[in-house]
Design a protein that fits this description.
heterotrimer, A mainly alpha, B mainly alpha, C mainly alpha, C: mainly alpha, Helix Hairpins
Chain lengths: 149, 502, 112
């Protein structure tokens, strides 16, 4: 994210993006980690995280963004999220049931409560965030490929 | 009692885990995706056989996901009909998976194929096994999105066009299904299928149920490809890679379309005379229109696609009759059709593998070069056109007898007519493709590799011996359980809700 | 009642786009409109008169909440719709790559 990069949009857009992207990422993480207490959760937080990267891509062009988060890493996180989700669900068999909430529920309205729900939120957010970003990259690359021909 | 009930979620969880593992770990290693897929499919076949045995003892098993009891939580229901469909779907998937090992060699990025293939199996199994109507919708979408991407797998012109048509049509179908689920939920305030049935039984029939039924028939008709809604199916079957066409015809349209229709209309909403006549009308229409359109085709796979529509018509007509014999015939035909249509699509794929052709006029004399393909294709053709003692004969025979017994002579006549036309069109296939003179430049054609032959031969053996499922001693364990579930009608709700309490 | 009719109208607009428009992108837009109509209908069907949002908080009383289940279900339906639309768009891009047009009357090589 250096100012001298020629590709992408104008300086104003780049500056604003540089200032806001971090906040968006943080907000996404907040939404995920408080998913079991307030509205939101894994899906919404994941979308916000993906959008922060998409914003970066719109402002700076694909080279800078893909250096931050390469396509391979994005699809690795996507697979990781899915495996985590399924793994936690299968771990429920230790309590006797698929998807069983086998961790102590804790006290309501605390950050560390609700058993496996926050873990699910994290897994979903990995899956959704990386997946949405991967979809965006693939569509962009597809279009660039088509324009080259 | 609840000793082996833990196998129920595995039907969905294992294929999904396999798909994610392939996407995450196995993409770099060439041979691993095929191995994982084959291990999973063979495992699923054995688990379905085990489930058949389990159902013989317990009749109905309900699994509470996450230990929440079903009317509130999500339940998975295993009963006779479910087990029957699971066996059908997983058998087809198993043979297609063996076949794919050699067939998929020609594509780049094989791991994508196997990932989507496993998602397709997971979706189809999930639709069959779930007891919750919104879950049914979710699994249905998993299966149909995976199959859409598989149709476009070759990324040639035709593949993309067919995939786009299929994606739009099945998307619209899903919207109708979702709309009907919304109406059902706002009318009954529950999503569990047994509970919906329970609530509906306490209310008087009215126009909302009529509208829901119409939406459901449209939605699932689009998924199953019955005649007024069949527009996208022939293109999709023609353009998709052969294993995918085989899966679509043998497993996906059956579990997504037919299973869901019959489960909802017989067990949840409840069947009546008007619905029965509608089903029989659609069935007969699909039967006749499909076979008439098929006769004129020269593209092998397109011909098979239209025959698929026509045979679906038989199934819908048989089950729509509503008599025990008709339901037996319909279900047995569902199983048989899954076997021989999978085999026929695999045959077409093996011809395409060897010669690169799909046009019947350009083939000819292949029986010398490809004895296994020609032999198995002969078996499947005889099965589909209803020649004794192949399995297709028994099921068609039962459907026709059932129609006569119910006094529906017109429908019985149409079924016989469609069977004769089917025979005519497959005589054409055999004559042009396998017999006759060898075309120029076809001397170098070789028989397909071993695994393709293995898969086709095993399916042909099932075609020949399929009639054994009707034999006393076997019939009670497999088909009768499924027929009983459909026959019990809306008593399904009390059966399931009692099984929850155990 | 009027809001339900609005949803029906939106749904019909979507279906009209899917059936009548020739441009692939417009067909996809029609699909999105129809899907959102169904989602909107689901949310509205769950509304209770003067209901409040179904959030469980330490200081709030649990009275007069709207039905919370459809909101979760619609979230799932939106995610599914996202996948569907992404698939459709990527197929559309590939089609443009191969055929050089978005007009479905010119993309008709499959017949019969």
């Amino acid at each position: 994210m250096n100012k001298t990069n020629e590709k992408g949009m104008s300086l104003i857009v780049k500056t604003i993006t540089r200032l806001t992207v971090g906040i968006m990422l943080l907000y996404g993480i907040y939404i995920i980690s408080h998913g079991h207490l307030t509205p939101g959760g894994g899906f919404a937080g994941g979308v916000i995280i993906a959008l922060s990267f998409v914003n970066l891509m719109l402002a700076y062009g694909k080279e800078v963004t893909l250096k931050k988060l390469p396509k391979g890493v994005a699809s690795f996180f996507e697979g990781m999220g899915a495996i985590l989700f399924l793994g936690i669900a299968l771990l429920g068999f230790t309590g006797g049931y698929f998807f069983f909430n086998f961790i102590a529920k804790g006290e309501p309205f605390r950050l560390f409560s609700a058993g496996i729900i926050p873990l699910f939120n994290i897994a979903i957010s990995l899956k959704v965030g990386a997946g949405l970003f991967a979809i965006f990259i693939s569509l962009v690359l597809l279009k660039i490929e088509a324009e080259k021909k | 009692m609840k000793l082996f009930v833990d196998i129920i979620p595995l039907f969905v969880a294992v294929p999904m885990a396999g798909a994610f593992l392939i996407a995450l770990v196995a993409r770099k290693i060439k041979w691993l995706p095929a191995l994982i897929t084959n291990i999973i499919t063979i495992g699923l076949v054995f688990v379905s056989f085990f489930a058949v045995k389990l159902i013989n003892i317990h009749k109905v098993l309900v699994y509470d996901v996450g230990a929440w009891k079903p009317p509130m939580g999500i339940g998975m229901v295993l009963d006779g009909f479910t087990v029957f469909m699971l066996t059908t779907v997983n058998l087809a998937a198993f043979f297609v998976a063996i076949y794919s090992i050699n067939y998929v060699e020609r594509f780049t990025s094989k791991w994508k194929f196997y990932t989507l293939f496993l998602f397709m199996i997971a979706g189809a199994n999930g639709v069959v096994i779930t007891g919750d109507i919104f879950n049914l919708f979710v699994f249905l979408e998993i299966a149909s999105i995976a199959s859409c991407s598989l149709i476009a797998f070759g990324t040639e012109k035709h593949d993309l066009e067919a995939a786009f048509k299929y994606a739009v049509m099945s998307g619209v179908g899903s919207l109708f299904i979702l709309l009907s689920i919304v109406l059902l939920y706002s009318y009954t305030s529950t999503l569990n299928m047994a509970d919906i049935s329970n609530v509906l039984a306490q209310k008087d029939p009215n126009n909302i149920i009529l509208m829901i039924s119409a939406l459901l028939i449209m939605g699932f008709g689009l998924k199953a490809g019955l005649v007024p809604f069949h527009g996208c199916l022939p293109d999709a079957y023609t353009s998709a890679p052969a294993p995918v066409s085989a899966m679509l015809a043998g497993a996906i349209t059956k579990s997504l379309g037919l299973y869901a229709i019959f489960r909802i209309f017989y067990n949840v909403i409840g069947m009546n005379q008007a619905l029965s006549s509608i089903f029989m009308f659609f069935g007969a229409l699909s039967m006749i229109v499909g076979v008439i359109l098929a006769i004129g085709q020269w593209d092998f796979k397109r011909l098979l696609a239209y025959h698929s529509i026509s045979q679906m018509g038989y199934i819908v007509m048989g089950i729509g009759l509503g008599t025990p014999l008709g339901i037996l015939g319909g279900l047995f035909h569902l199983f048989n059709h899954s076997v021989f249509k999978t085999l026929l699509f695999l045959n077409s794929g093996s011809i395409e593998y060897a010669t690169g052709k799909r046009d019947l006029q350009k083939m000819g004399g292949l029986s010398e070069q490809m004895p296994v393909t020609s032999g198995t294709c002969l078996a499947a053709s005889m099965a589909i056109s209803g020649i004794p003692p192949f399995n297709g004969f028994w099921s068609k025979f039962i459907i026709i007898i059932a129609a006569v017994q119910a006094g529906r002579y017109g429908y019985a006549f149409l079924a016989v007519l469609a069977s004769i036309l089917t025979l005519a069109s497959f005589t054409k296939v055999m004559k042009y493709a396998f017999f006759g003179k060898l075309k120029d430049g076809a001397n170098s054609v070789k028989e397909a590799p071993f695994l393709i032959k293995l898969s086709m031969t095993s399916l042909a053996v099932i075609c020949i011996t399929g009639g054994i499922l009707l034999a006393p001693g076997v019939y009670e364990h497999f088909l009768k359980e499924a027929v009983d579930v459909i026959l019990e009608g809306t008593k399904y709700s009390s059966v399931v809700l009692q099984a929850v309490l155990k | 009642m009027k809001v339900y009719l609005l949803c029906l109208g939106l749904f019909c607009i979507g279906l009209y786009c899917i059936l009548r428009k020739r441009n692939i992108i417009k067909i996809i837009l029609g699909f999105i409109i129809a899907e959102y109509a169904v989602n909107l209908f689901f949310i509205l069907a769950a509304y209770r008169m003067e209901g409040r949002s179904p959030i469980f908080a330490p200081d709030a009383k649990i009275v007069n909440m709207v039905d919370a289940l459809p909101q979760a279900l619609v979230l799932t339906a939106i995610a599914i719709g996202l996948a569907n639309v992404a698939l459709l768009i990527s197929i559309a891009l590939r089609i443009y790559d191969k055929y050089g047009t978005f007009d479905i009357t010119k993309i008709r090589e499959l017949r019969g």
